[in-house]
Amino acid sequence: MLSVHAVRHLRDFVLDITLSVRPGETLVLIGENGAGKSTVLNLISGILTPDEGEITLAGRTLFSSAERVAVPAENRKIGHLFQSYALFPHMTVAENVAFGLRCRKVPRPEIAFTVGNQLRAMNLADLADVNVSRLSGGQRQRVALARALVLEPELLLLDEPLAAVDMRAQAAMRGELRDRIRVAGIPCIVVTHNLRDAVELGDRLCLIDEGRVAAEGSPEEVLGMRENGFIASFAGPQAP
């Protein structure tokens, strides 16, 4: 279980977010550009520090302003998939996936075994020795997800996970991503501007407006709030 209350003073507004995500559940954050969606992910992962609040994950306190706790990002057991995927272009697929394990000083035989299993699970075994700069957008997405999952995270944070994937491949990749999230069985938060991503990946949607939760519920509930200008635009015209 992930529980978040985070306050952060930004340039244009004060972000003040309270949310929770259950194990095996995917919460999708939607909203205008600059509303604070990616900032929420960065506060949870430890890239940014809240000015106040509390963040707990699986019974562990990751941040507490009251208790003066701030667990470093590398110790939070969180898989964070960035919009750019942030892969190392000079490394092979296997080297990218193994990077986090090497940083943790995992023994080489264990790294080889674990990475091999992860590459097979993500249908990347045939590309293990290929430099990531030669991969398609969909293949890079799978490498980035494999790199996050190989560390056995207790939470997944995905920022525009399909933005770099070719339109023709998005449907298949969306299904593959949904399956991998379900298999992981951990809380997941997805930021997206894509309606299909929101509907097909999200168990719940959360509309963020200038750092606040403006609406939350099932995809059907939130997308039915046509009185909201962003929702009306995001969901598109209603069927006659």
Explained architecture:
This protein has 240 residues and is of the alpha/beta class. The termini are far apart. The protein has 8 helices and 11 strands. Strands 7-8-9-3-10-11 form a 6-stranded mixed beta sheet, sandwiched between helices. The chain has a single domain (2-88, 154-235), classed as P-loop containing nucleotide triphosphate hydrolases (Rossmann fold, 3-Layer(aba) Sandwich). The protein has helices spanning 37-45, 93-103, 108-121, 137-149, 167-184, 195-201, 219-223, 229-235, and strands at 2-9, 14-21, 26-30, 52-57, 60-64, 69-70, 78-81, 155-159, 188-191, 204-209, 212-217.
Number of helices: 8
CATH superfamily descriptor: P-loop containing nucleotide triphosphate hydrolases
Total beta strands: 11
The CATH topology: Rossmann fold
- Corresponding CATH architecture: 3-Layer(aba) Sandwich
Mean pLDDT: 93
Strand content: 15-25%
Overall structural class, as computed from helix and strand content, comes to alpha/beta
**Which CATH class?**
Alpha Beta
Q: What oligomeric state is this?
A: single chain
Query: Which residues form runs of ≥5 with pLDDT under 50?
Result: none
Count of the separate structural domains: 1
Gyration radius, in Å? 18 Å
User: Strands of the largest sheet, in order across it?
Assistant: 7-8-9-3-10-11
Dominant shape: globular
Helix content: 25-40%
